[in-house]
# Entry
Amino acid sequence: MDKIALGCDHGGYALMQEIKKYLEEAGLPYEDFGTYSSESCDYPVFAEKTARAVASGECSKGILICGTGIGMSICANKIRGIRCALCGDCFSAEFTRRHNDANMLAMGARVTGPGLAVKIAETFLNTGFEGGRHQRRIKLMMELENR
Ligand code: RB5
# Structure
């Protein structure tokens, strides 16, 4: 089964442990690209490692967590091939999969509590891309990388 790439900084470390617990219970394989403790670190380092695993196809999707989710999502979206959506609700998580074919989810541990964060991750991982007219838009979106 496709692996899910995980990455966090110190601000996201505790919440990432909850996400890992959910993935294990759901039988979903993952690879953890760190950080591995709540000791202060630089989120771009972990965003890049995790996003590259998704961009290369080594992992099919990715989840990033920092304090706000913002730094992680900005970094991930600088990697060619990544469509990372910062979500704080299940509606956004569902529609970023259905319409944007997002391949990474970012969340903010200081914004979103663990119960909701797990539901957001579950929604993101279990929702498919609709294709159709959205496929054309994704193509236009990804062409922006070549401008
Ligand atoms: C770290 O203090 C914090 O800046 C980081 O977790 C994140 O929120 C950045 O966007």
User: Anything to note?
Assistant: The chain has a mean pLDDT of 98. The domain at 4-146 is CATH 3.40.1400.10 (Ribose 5-phosphate Isomerase B; Chain: A,). The CA atoms of residues 67 and 109 lie 5 Å apart.
